[in-house]
Amino acid sequence: MTANQAGSNHRSKPSASAFRSSASAALSGGIFNEKGTMRAIGNKMMSMTKLIGMPTRSDVEVHVDHHYTSKIYSAGSQVSGTVKVNTQQDTAFGFVEINLLGKAIVRREDVHVMTETIQTLLKLYMPVPESAYPSTRLFRRGHTYSIPFSFIIPHQLTSNVCQYEVQTEAVRHHHLRLPSSLTGFEKDDLATSMAKIQYSVRARVFNIDDGSTVQLPAPILESEHPISILAPSPEDPPLILDKHDLHYVLESTKPVRKNIFSVPTGQITAKTSQPQAIRLSSDGHAASSSSAYIDIAFWPTAPDMLPPQVKIKSTSILAQNWASTRPAQIFPNVGVTREPTTLSTPTIVNATNITPWIQHVHILEDGESGRTKGGNRGSRDITVIRNSSTQDDGVSITYTCSTQVDFGLPTSSHVFPPTFHSCLISRTYTLEIKVTAGGAELPLLVPVQIFKEQESGRSQASTESELPSWDNVGGEAVYARLREHRRAL
C-alpha cells in the first residue's frame, strides 16, 4: 500500500474578536477545540520570516502529474506527483510529511465573532524513504530536491470518522461514504463559503530533534495543492415523506378565480411524486435526463364552470447546503429540521406534455346499487352512485388532466456534486415546479437524487499493485520517527 490513513478530528475556532475563553470538548471520537486566532498576526509573522531570511512557502511546491484546472478525480483515482524543495538558504530539517487531506469546514458568523469548525475527513500518509533525503539532512541553497508521492483516493472513510451516536445505521453508512468536494470547481457548484469540503495534497517539512517527545512544532516549510473530487454515490430508494417533512411540497391546492376580485370558480390541485434519480457521468460534465409527472384535478363550483388552461411556468433545481457545527444524528432534509442555505438554477426543459381535460360526471340517485357508464373515451366519464335518502338528487363534476415535464441539468455551466450526507455537511437537491392555472400558481417542491456510479475499468486493487509497498520504501522506519509526534498532526 502507498499510504496510511489516520483518524479524523474536529476543531472549531473563532477567527475574529475572540473574547470567549479557549475550550475543548471530546465528542465520541471527534475532538472540538476552540481557540482565538487573528489573521493579522499570522500575516505579520509571515512578513517577519521574510525579513529575517527564514524559508517560506515558496521554497516547497507540490506538483500533481497530469493535473489541470478542470480535472475531476474520483474514488480509486491515482493522485501522484512530486514535492520539490528549493530553499533560498541552507535549511536543516528532520523529515518531510506528505498527506492526502480531506476536510469539512463550517463557518458561522455572529455579531462579534466568526466560528470556524473543521473536521478532518481523510488523512493519508505517504511514507518517504530515507533514500529520498539528502544524507546530511540539509537542504542546500539553490539545489532542487524531488520527493515522489502517490495516493489512491479511497472509496470509504475509516470507521473512526463516525463514532458518535446516530439514530439509524443508515445515517452512519452515509456518513462513512466519501463526500464530494464543495467549492473549488472550475464551474459553479451552487455552494457557499459557509460550508466547504476540500481535498488537497499537502507537503510539510519539520525540523525536530531525534528522540524528542514534545508535540510537533510548526512546519518550517509547507505547501498545498487542491484537487476536486466527485465521489461515487449509489442510487438510494425514494424518500418516504409525510406531513412532517416541511422541506417538500408534493401536493398543492389553490382556488381558481377569473380575477383577483371575483369569487372562486372552483378549486384546483396539483400532485406529484419523486422523479427518477439523475445519473452523472464520471467527470460530471454530463447527466441523464429525468421526468416529473403531475396529476391535476379541478372541482368547479357550478356544473357550467369550465376548467382553466394549465401551463408550466418554470422548473428549477435547488441545491440545498446543510451545515452544522456538530455531527448530525439524522438526515437533515427529512422531518422538522433546520433550514439549509439554498441556491438555484433553472433546469433545461426538454419537453412538456399536458393531456386534455377529462370530465368526470358523478350522478347521485336513489337505488339499490350504483353503476358506471362510459362516455367518450378520453373526454368524459359518467358514474352513477347510490344516493342516501337524506341527500338530494344532483350532479357532481370533476375534471382531471396530467402533465409530464422532461428536464435535464445545465452541466455546461454548473457542476452538481452527487447527493451526500457527511458528519457536518450534506448536499441534497429539490426540483421546484411552478404550475399556473386560471391565475392560480401551484408551487411543487420535489426531492430529486443525483447519483454517480463507480467508474468501470481498472480497480483500486489493480492500481495499488503497481505501486511500491509500505515495506519496500522503508515505511516502518520512517513511521518510527513520527510515532511520538503524530497526535499533533
TrEMBL record:
Pfam families associated with the record: Arrestin_N (PF00339)
InterPro entries cross-referenced by the UniProt entry: Arrestin-like_C, Arrestin-like_N, Bul1-like
Residue ranges of domain Arrestin-like N-terminal in the record: 68-175
PANTHER family, per the entry: BYPASS OF STOP CODON PROTEIN 5-RELATED
Protein name: Arrestin
